[in-house]
């Protein structure tokens, strides 16, 4: 069974954040505070999470 990551947006990705970080949140599927998505655990997703680590909470499933 492949691992997945549960990603929750906990801080606004609009105000006082760089545009590329906002775009990264959108690419992960996060639009509003409180949105939760499940993504596969792979290096590209991990890199995206690292870029916006100050905006999200991550749980391994």
Automatic annotation (TrEMBL):
GO cellular component: large ribosomal subunit
Domain Large ribosomal subunit protein uL30-like ferredoxin-like fold: 5-56
Keyword tags: Ribonucleoprotein, Ribosomal protein
GO terms for biological process, alphabetical: translation
Pfam family, one: Ribosomal_L30
MF (Gene Ontology): structural constituent of ribosome
SUPFAM superfamilies tied to this protein: Ribosomal protein L30p/L7e (SSF55129)
UniProt family annotation: Belongs to the universal ribosomal protein uL30 family.
Assembly and interaction partners: Part of the 50S ribosomal subunit.
Name of the protein this chain belongs to: Large ribosomal subunit protein uL30
Organism: Thermophilibacter immobilis
């Amino acid at each position: 069974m492949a691992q997945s990551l549960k990603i929750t947006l906990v801080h606004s990705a609009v105000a006082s954040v760089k545009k590329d970080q906002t775009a990264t949140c959108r690419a992960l599927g996060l639009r509003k505070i409180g949105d939760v998505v499940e993504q596969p655990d792979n290096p590209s997703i991990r890199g995206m999470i690292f870029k916006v680590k100050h905006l999200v909470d991550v749980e391994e499933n």
